Amino acid sequence: MTQAASPSDMTPTQRATLKAVADTVLPALPERGKDAFWQVAASDLSVHLALEQYLATQLPPQTRAGLLSLLDALALLSFAPQGQAVRESLLRTISGLSPEAAAGIGALRQLTLMFGYSLTDAQGKNPLWEGLKYAGFSSPPPTTPGGITPYTPQAGETLDADVVVVGSGAGGGVIAARLAQAGKRVVVLEAGGYSHEAHFKGQELAAYQTLYYRGGYHPTADGNVTLVAGRNLGGGTTVNWSNSVRPRDDIRRAWAGEHGLSDVADPSYDAHIDSVLERMKVGEACSDHNGPHQRLEEGAEKLGYHYVRAALNLDPERYDAEKAGHSGFGDQTGAKQGTLRTFLQDAYDAGARILVGTEAQRILVEGGRAAGVSAVCTVDGEARPITVRAPQVVVACGALETPALLLRSGIGGPAAGQYLRLHPAGLAAGIYAEDQKAWWGPAQAGILKEFASREGGHGYIVEGVQYGPGLIASGLPWHSGVAHRELMDKFHRMAVFVSIVQDRGHGQVTVDGQGQAVHTYAVTDPLDVENFHQGIATTIRLHEAAGAEEIVALVPGLAPWKRGDDLEAFIAATRQAPLGAGGQTVFSAHQMGSARMGRDPQTSVADPEGQLHDTPGVWIGDTSAFPTCSGVNPMVSCMALASRTAERLLHHMDGGAVPPVGQSLQSGQAAQ
User: Fold this and answer.
1) What is the mean pLDDT of the chain?
2) Are the CB atoms for 37 and 198 separated by under 8 Å?
């Protein structure tokens, strides 16, 4: 395998135990067959080295220390010398001791499976893929150059600007474009790197390592939720699944009436929504249906549920269905109209300076108001401290990092890091008679909306998922090494549906002793718990209605349903497992609300315009500003709100000289 590990401070005993854990989760099973699929173990794929590297480089110190202590405990039980059956028994026993132990074992198991099914050799292949009927992605990247040349600062350099925007995703990209097009001197700081079509290889693990936050799918500090977010120039819009949903009217009314964003419910706000939809070329022309989407539509029709094709931010002139299913690993075709190809390009063309590999350390505050940002830019391995002096600072690091920057800076008030919403998501897989070819076509081309406002405006939607062997392998329940491998042997016949809950409850973002973000979230709100269970039940019924031969729920110890079994009994069994650590796997690709807008400085970080209650000149420009969760895929909601925030910021800077939103964005489109 090509991904080598970097040295870490693990002890030899910890390394041996980690290798044994990996080989227990993903063992060689030569008695099952002579194909490579059955012959290899995790260590044959260098999974243990990838795990060591991940623990050394991607986890907060507290989380890493907990996993190393878990390895020490297993070593005291002489884990490594034991046979497969004893090792599996020990893992189950340790998991049952406490929620923390269950979370730790679960994290190591998920990471092992993620790496095992996504690590590749020099030819871009993995021997386990043979059993998946998956050839991998073989299209070489195009040689098309990128449209942006990032600015490279010198160590100790000070840049002067009118506005510094920290983050380049759905929110930061839009704000940078609007301000630069209005003639402001804009500096954009992005913690991730710059990758474009010429860099994208369509490979899962390589994408996680270069384009995603903390190396891809990773657990919250309490082990309850597996998070995924972008970390690259363009943020989540570079790697998301293109679903472009207009903000819900009921959510707009709630933000206006309950949180003070009065104009968000007015027809005038539609100009912000329409402008971003137009700039991203959103439409249904590319919403092709692969096997899983056909099954979802068939199940919905049979059950009488409301299902619609999704609108996607894909350019029909560049779209290629053969490659679209891998666009979450970077879109080689350039069809995806994320901020990298739209708003950031507009900002750059209008004169904005864009820095990548640049982590904001703290916001500078002088005389009680914003004065700029201190940051560290890494250039060819060299850490270069820099300062951006600017009287206006837009914080758009994403809801997982924006509150951490505020907390490191000592600003934001008591609500900073509170009210983290995650849209908790659960999966169910149906196994059908035919190959579903889930790698073909867009990851999300349809939405089941039947239960979107199930109770009091809170409910769930059902959608498709990105094709990724590592992602699905890590999510499927692990009962034993052989049982999981037998399940993956049917992977090519699987269709996976995801139910996404509009959460009423919330979690928290704090910082550890090193100032690193720490995320915690427990799905305990009674309505959220019920909606989660109802969502799983709906996905199961959809699979049964669509003709699945077997249905797999992500519940430890629960055997797959097989046609002829009692479906309602199977659904009832899924409700018995807790949600999160030690129970059902909960995912989140939508993080919101952790630096939210509102009237009350005690329960919100920013005022209804987007400016901090306690620090003038600091603005929140991403999904962390959402007063509540969006209830739908949040990209368009984020962009529209960011466009509004940019308008308010320009008003403060110019005393009311605000370019019409449609005019400024359309002019950028024409310039490209």
Assistant:
1) 93
2) no
Contact 42, 22 (CB under 8 A): yes
Q: Is residue 660's pLDDT more than 90?
A: no
Report the alpha-carbon angle 46-50-54, nearest 5: 170
Among 74-83, 213-222, 373-382, 533-542, the minimum mean pLDDT is found in 213-222
Please state, for a pLDDT cut of 70, what percent of the chain lies above it.
96
Which tokens is 38 given? 């059955």
Q: pLDDT tens digits, residue range 607-628? A: 999 999 999 999 999 999 999 9
4 burial class (0-12, 13-18, 19+ CB within 10 angstroms)? exposed
User: Residue 158 belongs to what H/E stretch?
Assistant: strand 158-160
Order of strands, edge to edge, in the sheet holding 392-395? Answer: 353-355, 186-189, 163-166, 392-395, 618-620
Distance, CA of 457 to CA of 128 (rounded, Å)? 44
Strand partners, 394: 165, 619
CA atoms of 250 and 275, how far apart (whole Å): 21
Decide: 546 and 509 in contact? Cβ < 8 Å: no
- Parts of the chain belonging to CATH 3.50.50.60: 158-242+245-281+328-419+592-651
Q: Are 509 and 403 in contact (CB under 8 A)?
A: yes
Residue carrying the six token digits 């400024």: 664
Q: How far is CA 105 from CA 91, 575, 576, 642, in A?
A: 7, 22, 20, 40
pLDDT at 102: 86
β-sheet bridge partners, residue 619: 394, 611
User: 């690993």: which residue's tokens?
Assistant: 329
Q: In the 8-state DSSP scheme, what is residue 212?
A: B
State the pLDDT confidence band at 661, using cuts at 50, 70 and 90.
low
**Looking at the DSSP assignment, which residues form a beta bridge with residue 588?**
227
Q: Which residues pair with 336 in a beta bridge?
A: 314
Q: What is the pLDDT of residues 193-215, one digit of tens each?
A: 999 999 998 899 999 999 999 98
When computed from its CA atoms, the radius of gyration of the chain, rounded to whole angstroms, is 24
Contact (Cβ atoms closer than 8 angstroms) between residue 613 and residue 607: yes
Distance of alpha carbon 441 from alpha carbon 291, whole angstroms: 9
Q: Topology of domain 158-242+245-281+328-419+592-651, per CATH?
A: FAD/NAD(P)-binding domain (3.50.50)
Q: Could you write out the DSSP letters of every residue in 426-492?
A: EEEEEE-SS---TTSS-S--EEE-TTTTSBTTB-EEEE-----HHHHHHHS--S-HHHHHHHHTTGG
Joined together, the tokens standing for residue 63 give 């989380």
Q: Determine the Cα–Cα distance for residues 595 and 622; give it in Å rounded to an integer.
A: 9
Neighbouring-strand partners of residue 107: none
pLDDT in tens, 448-477: 999 999 998 899 999 999 988 998 999 898
Please tell me whether residue 526 adopts helix, strand or coil conformation.
Answer: helix
Query: pTM higher than 0.90, yes or no?
Result: yes
User: Angle between the 47-57 and 99-116 helix axes, to the nearest 10 degrees?
Assistant: 120
Residue with tokens 């954009």: 188
Contact, 494 vs 431, CB < 8 A? yes
